[in-house]
Amino acid sequence: MRLESTVSHHFDSRDPEHIHRYLTEAYGTRGMRIDSDERRYRLSHRRLHAGPIRVDRVVQSTDLRVEVAEIESLVVCESTTSTVTRSCDGEESRYRPGDVFLNARPGRPYRVRWQPGEVVLCQLDRQLFDQIASPAPGRRPSPVRFTGLEPGSAVLADHWRATAHYVRLAVLSNPEASRQPLVLGAAARTLAAAALAVFPNTALTEPTGPDRRDAVAPVLRRAISFMEEHAHRDIGPADVAAAAAVSVRSLQLAFRRHLDSTPMAYLRQIRLERAHQDLRLGDPQHDTVNRIATRWGFLSHSRFTAHYRSVFGIPPSRTLHS
């Protein structure tokens, strides 16, 4: 998965036919029907698009009734100022401003009644979940299915809101960060991991017997070799696991068992070393600490500085200017 940059787009119309065509294309479905008591109404749609994730702020001015045949991606909705009633698979629920919910299970039809106001929609391609939980090569894959449409608890709903807010503002809306593939890839997987943590699903998080048998030292060596070679690329747990010929859970267990770490924490350490090399060789007249850090996937300047100082004993600015 390589994400080049964030693309922003703004749509605003009062033409129902134009609105219908736009939403059909934006959400990848041909089976959509929109009804309103008003012949003309206004819909504003602002999108931040980065590969497999799309974050939309949508405002509309009337009482809409929308029927959707299916959407293959996962759509997480946060109502900010609107009241939404959703029907899916025989379940009907009403959501008020502040509520978080799934529009539907991917691939299933649903209906919503959307009263005037704003909602924030986060659309995640299903392939993202394979980056979080995948079997070992040769084993039969088991696609993740979402079994519930609401967060497991109020605390988990808060977790989704905080994660989505951070990704939208600190990554997708950040001109420097939104141009860095390593940052964008990490943000996409962070949203997918949050969705798996917040909404009930069939993903297995604990290692199975075969996973434990595969968590051996040779697996660790193959994984580290792959990460050393490809640290400059946007790689995730599934990429490393595939290179090591094990499942993601085996990979995670191997790192925990032998290094008391995680694959992504080890990858961050490799990238910290690469950032250190770039700082040593950098030109203070043209390079900055923030630009080098972001290039290697470190978004927070303060956290990067603290981590760098804890490893190398000096702030990164001193390395660049030495």
TrEMBL record:
Gene Ontology molecular function = DNA-binding transcription factor activity; sequence-specific DNA binding
Does this UniProt record's set of keywords contain Endoplasmic reticulum?
A: no
Domain of life, per UniProt, equals Bacteria
**Pfam families from the xrefs?**
AraC_binding_2, HTH_18
Any stretches that span the bilayer, and where are they?
none
Q: Which InterPro entries match?
A: AraC-bd_2 (IPR035418), AraC_XylS_family_regulators (IPR050204), Homeodomain-like_sf (IPR009057), HTH_AraC (IPR018060), HTH_AraC-typ_CS (IPR018062)
Q: Which residues does the UniProt record annotate as the domain HTH araC/xylS-type?
A: 221-322
Key words, A-Z: DNA-binding, Transcription, Transcription regulation
SMART domains tied to this protein: HTH_ARAC
Q: Which residues form a coiled coil?
A: none
Q: Which PANTHER family match?
A: HTH-TYPE DNA-BINDING TRANSCRIPTIONAL ACTIVATOR EUTR, HTH-TYPE TRANSCRIPTIONAL ACTIVATOR RHAS-RELATED
- What protein am I looking at? Transcriptional regulator, AraC family
What is the organism of origin for this protein?
Micromonospora sediminicola
